[in-house]
């Protein structure tokens, strides 16, 4: 999109961006990106990135694509958390950095900041205004993750004995 940066740092170490950011070797190096989560079926990875995760989802509003994002949500968030805990700077991208990748960042915020799905959308849009525009195509995936995280995962984490 004209005049919009290719990526924005949403929280420390987590960048939300587009295809151009993912393929821009200079940008990746300047921002010390060491792990990339690619929410497309066909955009290649930069050869300089060793930690590569592909989430093969199309942004075509087909129910199976939204279902797949929902099914993979826990594994995706687990891997983002793992990479951040290892100190990696992460770029999460799709084609435009508006829908698929924004939902993944939203899931991360739900699991690390205690946000609701609605708060996650608002927060991301406050930093990257094009996110979730014109409509949040994968909102159902974000809502499902929010529900499962708060009703199934979080209660079990708080019950664990350390």
From TrEMBL:
<protein>
    <recommendedName>
        <fullName>Dual specificity phosphatase catalytic domain</fullName>
    </recommendedName>
</protein>
<dbReference type="InterPro" id="IPR020422">
    <property type="entry name" value="TYR_PHOSPHATASE_DUAL_dom"/>
</dbReference>
<dbReference type="GO" id="GO:0005737">
    <property type="term" value="C:cytoplasm"/>
</dbReference>
<dbReference type="GO" id="GO:0004721">
    <property type="term" value="F:phosphoprotein phosphatase activity"/>
</dbReference>
<dbReference type="GO" id="GO:0043409">
    <property type="term" value="P:negative regulation of MAPK cascade"/>
</dbReference>
<feature type="domain" description="Tyrosine-protein phosphatase">
    <location>
        <begin position="4"/>
        <end position="151"/>
    </location>
</feature>
<feature type="domain" description="Tyrosine specific protein phosphatases">
    <location>
        <begin position="75"/>
        <end position="139"/>
    </location>
</feature>
<keyword id="KW-0378">Hydrolase</keyword>
<dbReference type="InterPro" id="IPR029021">
    <property type="entry name" value="Prot-tyrosine_phosphatase-like"/>
</dbReference>
<keyword id="KW-0904">Protein phosphatase</keyword>
<dbReference type="InterPro" id="IPR000387">
    <property type="entry name" value="Tyr_Pase_dom"/>
</dbReference>
<dbReference type="Pfam" id="PF00782">
    <property type="entry name" value="DSPc"/>
</dbReference>
<dbReference type="InterPro" id="IPR000340">
    <property type="entry name" value="Dual-sp_phosphatase_cat-dom"/>
</dbReference>
<dbReference type="InterPro" id="IPR016130">
    <property type="entry name" value="Tyr_Pase_AS"/>
</dbReference>
